[in-house]
Amino acid sequence: MKKIGLLMLLCIAAVSANAQLKVNADGKIMLGSTTLNPVSPLAFGGVGNTYAKTYFEGNGYVMQLKPLGKSSNMSSSLFGCGLRVAAPPVQNSGLAGVYSNISGYYNSANGFTVGVEGIAGDGKNGYNYGVTGSIVGAKNGAGIFGCVGYEGHSRYIHDKYAGYFLGKVFVEGDLFIDQDHLFHYSNEDVMPNKQPIGSVLNRVMSITPFAYKFPSSSDSIYALSAQNISNVFPYLVSSDGEFVDYTELIPILVKAIKEMQAEIDVLQSALARSGGNLDFNSSYRSPLYSGTSAVLYQNSPNPFTNSTTIRFTLPDDVQDAYIYIFDMTGKMQKQIPIDISMQSVTIQGYELSAGMYIYSLVIGGKEVDSKRMILSK
């Protein structure tokens, strides 16, 4: 026992002789020096400052934590943490669980600075997050807030967002935004079940654009109403009914323009052949469509009262075909999309007023043929 006690005394003496530990009379502790006076209550490698309770200073990894997993007394909803900070918010005061300020104020700084870096991997597949943030409770805010400049503590957020970004945002991958453009991944080779868009012109014509202006701004903002869009293209409006997918609306608008151009082509051809009026002959062949297997037949019966059938033949490769019906002033009355699975369409007498009409077969925006039909009541 005497030998063991002597050995312990020798160890203590050796540690005391080599350790750089200083404890001031006010209880402040300094590790790393016996001559400097600590300012922080516990200082490692430097004296610290008056607002840091614990202060670390050094080169490389100033402090490294190596968690070994969740302890047995932790709940199933928790997991092992290298650093865990838990505290309630302070009334009328800000509180940061972890605050990082890495700023290159030095002229000699040639490297890069990272405020917070998160790297995760080799955990459960699909559950590896470099950095996570959540917004909980009843108050507004953001799970992750990003800004350019120093507005991180002064920006009021009017709702709850998973992410809120003040400034330019760039996403590299399927979707990215730069200063001038919004890009979507749109490789046709990987689009499953591609189908041509059907007739949309009438629905597009029911959309009403408008402009609005905030009191603090002199510039108008041009927009579409989510309520209006939900009536004609409901899948372009978010589930909460407040957001519109403007990007996916673009192909629909392109299709509407093509439909309108097809109508213009039909009317121009009709006007040219009629010498400036729309008193058509009963049948004529238009040279606008170069295909040979597309045929438009005379409606039967003609004249008709209750209903009439318009028959047609389409080529196998057709993708964009319509039957247009115009009155004698040139105003379109009906637009009927057709495909190769169809051989005819039926027009009910109650759909139109009594009179003479011109109906046309249009493929790919080009007129195949036009004929005249008469509705008598």
Which helices and strands, and how do they pair?
Layout: H1 2-18, E1 21-23, E2 29-31, E3 42-44, E4 54-56, E5 141-147, E6 160-166, E7 175-177, E8 182-184, H2 201-205, E9 210-212, E10 221-223, H3 226-232, H4 246-274, E11 283-285, E12 295-296, E13 307-313, E14 321-327, E15 332-338, E16 344-348, E17 355-363, E18 366-375
Parallel strand pairs: 2-3, 3-4, 5-6
Antiparallel strand pairs: 1-2, 7-8, 9-10, 11-18, 12-13, 13-16, 14-15, 14-17, 17-18
Verbal overview:
The protein contains 4 helices and 18 strands. By secondary structure, the chain is of the alpha+beta class. The strands form 6 sheets. Strands 11-18-17-14-15 form a 5-stranded antiparallel β-sheet, with helices on one face. The termini are far apart.
What labels would you give this structure?
alpha+beta; four-stranded mixed sheet; 377 residues
Q: Hey, roughly how much beta strand do the residues contain?
A: 15-25%
Integer average pLDDT: 78
What strand order characterises the main sheet?
11-18-17-14-15
Derived structural class: alpha+beta
Short summary of the structure?
This protein has 377 residues and is of the alpha+beta class. 15% of the residues lie in helices and 23% in strands.
